[in-house]
Amino acid sequence: MNMIEATNIYKKFNQLEVLKGISLQVKKGEVIAIIGPSGSGKSTFLRCLNHLEIIDKGSITIEGEMMAKMDSAGNSHYQSPSEVRRICKKMGMVFQGFNLFPHKTVLGNIIEAPMVVNKMDRRQAVSIAEELLQKVGLIDKRDSYPSQLSGGQKQRVAIARALAMRPDIMLFDEPTSALDPELTGEVLKVMKDLAEEHMTMLVVTHEMGFARGVANRVIFMDDGKIIEEGEPQEIFSNPSHPRTKAFLNQIL
Amino acid sequence: MLYELYLSKLMGPILYLSKIMGPMLEGTIVTLQLFFVTIIFSIPLGLTLALARISKFKILKDFTGVYIWLLRGTPLLLQLFFIYFGLPYIPIVGVTLDRFPAAAITFILNYAAYFAEIFRAGIQSIDKGQYEASKALGMTYWQTMRRIILPQMVKRVLPPVSNETITLVKDTALVYAIGLSELLRAAKVAVQRDFTTVPFMIAAVFYLVMTLVLTWVFKKLEQKYALYE
């Protein structure tokens, strides 16, 4: 069973067509890097997968459960809001801008969803949170507020917060793009550790080092379509499509 | 001799002050009652209106919009007259209210409209990333509002809410117009009876003390909320 099965996804913002027929299957434990020029629709695609954007056409199935299905004309129909929410809980998301809750401490950020959404008791939520803070190396920041952290620390807390819901899939939307260059390493390290634990990951990124070194599969998107996909070596050393070549030449 | 003369000169004002202080304190109690009743009811009502104003149900949204427009768009004094003098003449719903309930209802309805707009602005000033993060964590709209958005909104609206409460202290003087014995009325009665402006000055000092306390309370609240930013 595929972890994610997205079929023929179209998405328009007003008149602007951003996704033009994207299909993707993700297997358990796969780490997929989605690369491409800005405006190519890669973030929008990621956001469609966990219902932060509504798709117009196509279908989305998460771990065998249909979140949005397609009718004969190709138009999408979502399940009820509570079903969609239940299905989306299988995915955690990390944002470019961190989006930590500024009024809560680091610990408060992490225990919030387990307690409020899963009705977990506080003691258990705290023990999970502490374990995750150990893992991302921030246990000493347990009682700090987000405003007291560096960008890299914020993003590591955001990863821990997403992991606290025990997701099967992690979506990363340009997780290091808002960071100073010297801080990207600590975040990439945490992501690499996750990949080594066989977490299923979709990473929209400009970090070619990460795409090349950690991903099992690289997807190149341009103009709302998947232009080329394959193993990292293949894409980076021998891209077949001229647009992939042009993009890689520009950034490498 | 001189000492006694001095004493009697000094005693005069003190005796006068103690004579008018009673009614003025009673008036202050009415002022404070109206203030607290208005705050206690108009803040939750204002929050409800704010949430209705940003709701996706168009009817609810439009109805709240009209309500806010009416209540902010007409003089508070007119609303007070309408509730106290006008309401009894309205068929079916027409009721005659005592002075204090009439004043309290008017103030609650009026201030709720202002608070609604303050809260709406506060809610809408919260970054949409906060909603997205909450949604990505599986939280519902109401869980997000209650746990994430509203607590952050409180911090942001403290300065305008502080402004509004200070205005409220002074607006309570308007109920003078329907004959409620609040602070300003007590002062006016004494002024007209005794041909002196001293009671007005005392009233001014009372208002200043009340607004000073409010300023202090809100300063403390802002300091408390400054913790996380």
List keywords for this structure.
heterodimer; A: 252 residues; alpha/beta; six-stranded mixed beta sheet; five-stranded antiparallel beta sheet; 9 helices; 11 strands; globular; B: 229 residues; mainly alpha; MetI-like fold; 81% helix; flat
Q: Which structural category do the helix and sheet elements of chain B fall into?
A: mainly alpha
Order of helices and strands of chain A: EEEHEEEHEHHHEHEHEEHH
**What is the subunit arrangement here?**
heterodimer
Q: What structural class results from the helix and strand content of chain A?
A: alpha/beta
Q: Return Rg of chain A in Å.
A: 18 Å
**Helix-strand string of chain B:** HHHHHHHH
At CATH's second level, what is the architecture of chain B? Orthogonal Bundle
- Describe the sheet with the most strands of chain A: 6 strands, mixed
> Beta-strand level of the residues of chain A, as a percent range?
25-35%
Rg calc of chain B = 23 Å
Describe this structure in words.
The complex is a heterodimer of chains A (252) and B (229). Chain A has helices at 42-49, 81-88, 106-116, 122-135, 151-163, 181-196, 208-213, 232-237, 242-251; strands at residues 4-13, 16-26, 31-35, 57-62, 65-70, 76-78, 91-94, 169-173, 200-204, 217-222, 225-230. In chain A, helix 6 (181-196) links the parallel strand 8 (169-173) and strand 9 (200-204). Helices cover 37% and strands 27% of the residues of chain A. With 252 residues, chain A is of the alpha/beta class. Chain A is globular and about 50 Å long. Chain B has a single domain (24-226), classed as Orthogonal Bundle (MetI-like fold). Chain B is flat. The N and C termini of chain B lie far apart (67 Å). The model of chain B has no long low-confidence stretch (mean pLDDT 93). Chain A binds chain B through residues 50-52, 85, 88-89, 91-93, 95, 97, 99-104, 112-113, 116-118, 145-147, 158, 161-162, 165, and chain B through 127, 129-130, 132-133, 135-140, 143, 147-148, 151-152, 155, 227-229.
